[in-house]
């Protein structure tokens, strides 16, 4: 394949340095040189373009695509899910997202299919499912007595996700590691898209969370917590969980605890908006879920604004799947609208996300030695307003993706 020069772009390298015009030399999927006037076997002129590291989304669900109606699940053949996921992964990659954390739904086969090049998509860390207490955010039990089909239903690649008590928790984390989970996800509070759980109630007790974190840590895995309730957030931080997902009801004490512990916030600001969009489009959702989403929007944005002001570390994540995939970049504009500078937003979507996922030695910045994941946007402005139409080229491990 030789040496390719991505030439003359306005390079935002993600390290904290100001953007400046440079050439990037790529060989065998790696960045081998950065400078001016570099030579190669092939050169692609990126003058007039902003070039960033490949983008990250630290919270996606490829097994859903913005349609949560039981009818959709009920009428989708089991194996069809995987073909649908492949198309969503490609759609995500085409927006410049070259790496994701899959927050529940995709199993090891989905990850391996991408790794082996059978399907195109972001490289991924998978949580496989989301651990939930009985009656928690991931419990598919319904008051009619039926179990409604959902994206976290168990099958050979996905362990059952409802767990109660420290002993069960220990076994369950081990089952997830056995099944190939790169990260363990737990719901430490109720949520919006589960009709029987309250986003303002904490779920699991300290003894259960302590076992979870100890088992995950022993297996070299980080833990991510779906945490919306104030006490669910605090319990997660106390247990040493690495990232708070959503963080809707943050109070000052929770923010201080995150600062002290170095906990990341993955805000998913677009998620409640996506639920309301779905309701507007006539997707069949229970009224209780629509009401919870509406109640969450303002307080969520206010929590985020205060967290940013206080200096909490933010990593970009959208909860795509709750809304249709491919609109991930809408989150960046919301982050900027709510108080982050465009530079900070881009760092949260590249280097900081790579640090959260523990892959910053190979990804997240444009530096010599790193894997060549690059995005070229039309125009050289370091600005995150309406970015999607600006995506001009996406390069993953040195290979350009056909958009
Ligand atoms: Zn989610």
Keyphrases for this structure?
eight-stranded mixed beta sheet, alpha/beta, 20% strand, five-stranded parallel beta sheet, 33% helix, binds zinc ion, 2 domains, TIM Barrel
Per-chain topology:
Elements: E1 3-11, E2 20-27, E3 30-35, E4 42-45, E5 49-53, E6 55-60, H1 70-74, H2 80-93, E7 97-102, H3 108-115, E8 123-126, H4 166-179, E9 183-187, H5 206-218, E10 222-227, H6 230-239, E11 243-246, H7 252-261, E12 264-266, H8 270-280, H9 287-310, E13 313-314, H10 330-337, H11 342-348, H12 351-357, E14 374-378, E15 391-396, E16 399-401
Parallel strand pairs: 1-4, 1-5, 6-7, 7-8, 9-10, 10-11, 11-12, 12-13
Antiparallel strand pairs: 1-2, 2-3, 5-14, 14-15, 15-16
The structure holds zinc ion.
Zinc ion (ZN) binds at residues 59, 61, 103, 319.
The backbone outline, from C-alpha atoms, is globular
CATH homologous superfamily designation of the largest domain: Metal-dependent hydrolases
Total of domains: 2
| CATH class descriptor name of the largest domain | Alpha Beta
- How much of the residues is beta strand, in percent? 15-25%
Bound molecules: zinc ion
Structural class based on helices, strands and sheet pairing? alpha/beta
Report the uncertain regions. Answer: none
Count of discrete alpha- or pi-helical segments spanning 4 or more residues: 12
Number of strands: 16
């Amino acid at each position: 394949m030789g040496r390719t020069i991505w030439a003359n772009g306005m390079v935002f390298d993600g390290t904290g340095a100001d953007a400046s015009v440079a050439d990037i030399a790529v060989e065998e999927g790696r960045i081998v040189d950065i400078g001016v006037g570099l030579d190669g076997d092939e050169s692609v002129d990126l003058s007039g373009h902003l070039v960033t590291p490949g983008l990250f989304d630290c919270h996606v669900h490829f097994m859903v695509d913005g349609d949560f109606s039981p009818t959709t699940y009920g009428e989708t053949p089991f194996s069809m899910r995987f073909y649908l996921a492949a198309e969503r992964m490609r759609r995500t990659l085409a927006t410049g997202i070259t790496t994701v954390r899959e927050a529940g739904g995709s199993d090891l086969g989905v990850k391996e299919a991408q790794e082996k090049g059978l399907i195109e998509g972001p490289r991924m860390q998978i949580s496989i499912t989301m651990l939930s207490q009985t009656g928690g955010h991931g419990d598919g039990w319904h008051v009619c007595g039926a179990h409604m089909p959902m994206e976290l239903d168990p099958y050979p690649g996905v362990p059952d996700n409802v767990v109660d008590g420290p002993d069960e928790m220990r076994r369950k984390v081990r089952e997830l590691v056995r099944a190939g989970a790169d990260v363990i996800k737990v719901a430490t509070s109720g949520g919006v898209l589960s009709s029987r759980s309250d986003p303002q109630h904490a779920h699991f007790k300290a003894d259960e969370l302590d076992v979870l974190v100890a088992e995950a840590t022993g297996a070299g895995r980080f833990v991510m917590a779906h945490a919306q309730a104030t006490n669910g957030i605090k319990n997660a931080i106390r247990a040493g969980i690495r990232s708070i997902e959503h963080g809707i009801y943050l109070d000052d004490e929770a923010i201080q605890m995150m600062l002290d512990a170095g906990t990341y916030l993955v805000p998913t600001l677009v998620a409640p908006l996506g639920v309301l969009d779905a309701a507007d489009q006539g997707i069949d959702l229970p009224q209780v879920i629509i009401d919870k989403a509406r109640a969450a929007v303002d307080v969520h944005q206010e929590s985020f604004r205060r967290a940013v002001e206080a200096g909490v570390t933010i990593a970009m994540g959208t909860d795509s799947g709750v809304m249709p995939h491919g609109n991930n970049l809408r989150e960046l504009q919301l982050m900027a609208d709510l108080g982050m500078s465009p530079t900070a937003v881009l760092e949260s979507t590249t280097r900081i996300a790579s640090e959260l996922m523990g892959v910053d030695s190979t990804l997240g910045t444009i530096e010599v030695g790193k894997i060549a994941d690059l995005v070229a946007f039309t125009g050289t402005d370091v600005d995150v307003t309406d970015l999607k139409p600006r995506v001009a080229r996406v390069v993953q491990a040195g290979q350009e993706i056909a958009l």
